[in-house]
Amino acid sequence: MRVGRFMAIGAALALPVLAAAQDIQIEMLDIEPLKYEPLEVPLGEVTSETVVAATVGEGAMLRGLDKLTGQVVDFELANGYSVNFGTLRVDMAQCRHPSENPAGEAYAFLSVYEDRGAGSNLFQGWMIASSPALSALDHARYDVWVLRCQLSAQAQAESTSEGAGSD
């Protein structure tokens, strides 16, 4: 008896909903097309490009980080030589710095291999001392980045004499 009463109440409530659903009308709206207006921004003229002469250093000071142990190691590496750091082998091709500022921006061409050279090449390219994330070694355990170029004795003497005269 109760089931019949609930069915009757449910049917009575559903009738207005069904009747309202039949009264839906669909209308097409008039939409104006978008007008294309080009963006005009005056650009300045390029008058000259700054070219900085680079000098090849004798090597580079590199820093390695073992992310697992937290060990940080600084190592000097001459051009054309390699060093093992953990399970990595780091090959230094060349380090360059601005001719007029030997202590300035350094960038080095490195190749980094897994399994001390027996494994795959993990990184090959220029690393920039001031922007290590720009071209970084992507390794789960190790980070390697460039600190500065090693200067020849003559370049080092020139940079210290320039610094002493600027007081």
Describe the structure.
- The chain has about 170 residues and is α+β, with helices and mostly antiparallel strands.
- It has a domain at about 55-165.
- About 20% of the residues lie in helices and about 35% in strands.
- It is built from 2 helices and 8 strands, in the order αββββββββα.
- The chain has helices spanning about 1-20, 155-165; strands at about 55, 60-65, 70-80, 80-85, 90-100, 105-115, 120-130, 140-150.
- The strands form 2 sheets. Strands 1, 4, 5, 6 and 7 form a 5-stranded antiparallel β-sheet that branches. Strands 3-2-8 form a 3-stranded antiparallel β-sheet, with no helix packed on it.
- The protein starts with a helix and ends with a helix.
- This is DUF2155 domain-containing protein.
- It holds the Pfam family DUF2155.
- It comes from Shimia marina.
Give a short summary of the structure.
Residues 1-19 form the signal peptide. This protein is of the alpha+beta class and 167 residues long.
